[in-house]
Amino acid sequence: MGTIIAPSVLSADFGNLQRDCEMINNSEAGWFHVDVMDGVFVPNISFGFPVMNVLKKHAKKTLDVHLMIVDPDRYIQRFAEHGANILTVHYEACTHLHRSIAEIKKHGMKAGVALNPHTPVSMLEDIIADCDLALVMSVNPGFGGQAFIQNTYRKVHALKDLILQKNANTLIEVDGGVSEHNASELARAGADVLVAGNAVFATSYPIDTIAALHKTANS
Ligand code: DX5
Ligand code: ZN
Predict the structure, then answer these.
(1) Which of 67, 198, 201, when mutated, tests ligand 1's pocket best, judged by the most ligand atoms within 8 Å of its CB?
(2) What is the atom index within ligand 1 of the atom nearest the CA of 200?
(3) Which tens digits make up the pLDDT trace of 131-155?
């Protein structure tokens, strides 16, 4: 399997969401990355179920939902009902992470866990084998268009080592500040999925940018 590009819907044009969904459908992107923020876990509010409904209707690829919300257990069932294929919760937001992961799977979704930039990879030692996905935040979550944190390369290497050591099948996703400048190094470090918001949607021809990112990450 090559490296998957997951455009972040957060940077799409919400007045033309159907159009942007169709662009992603027709592109070399593998997944839709969907950032849900509650204004408590992160200092920003993005969107919730009304936008999920639009995505469920128009997106033809995997819906990779990244919950930046406190106490995400409250909403697992509703995200399943709204079409999420992968549901990622934050390590820092879950008191009983093992239970949250089990609940996500019980509702028929793949389960992911996300790490903020300050959280060491070693915190996942006892849960990694249960996770379908581990998301390394390469910016402080909350906003698109921020600068990539260089320490991410080291974390991706460490995570890859941990996954191999535990004989796990976990995919590694990197989220924040991803562009054509760092995509190939991230893929070499072990990233399986690269999220890109600003790098895709701030360009004149996002579909070409997705193709270029895909090519760089898989070269
Ligand atoms: C940040 C979100 C990211 C964001 C990435 O809190 O989790 O998914 O949309 O956007 P860029 O690629 O612009 O950094
Ligand atoms: Zn995200």
Answers:
(1) 198
(2) 12
(3) 999 999 999 999 999 999 999 999 9
Rounded Cα–Cα distance for residues 125 and 113 (Å): 12
Give dist(CA 137, CA 143) in Å, integer.
Answer: 12
Our answer on whether the CB atom of 197 is closer than 6 Å to any ligand 1 atom is: yes
Please state, in angstroms and rounded to a whole number, the distance separating the CA atoms of residues 145 and 78. Answer: 29
Q: Residue 87's beta-bridge partner residues?
A: 65, 111
pTM check: above 0.85: yes
Q: Which of 20, 38, 64, 175 is catalytic?
A: 175
For atom 1 of ligand 1, the residue with the nearest CA is: 141
Whether 156 contacts 124, CB under 8 Å = no
Residue 132: active-site member: no
SS3 88: strand
Which residue segments constitute the domains of the chain, with CATH numbers given? 4-217 (3.20.20.70)
173 lines ligand 1 (CB under 6 A): no
CA distance 36 to 162: 28
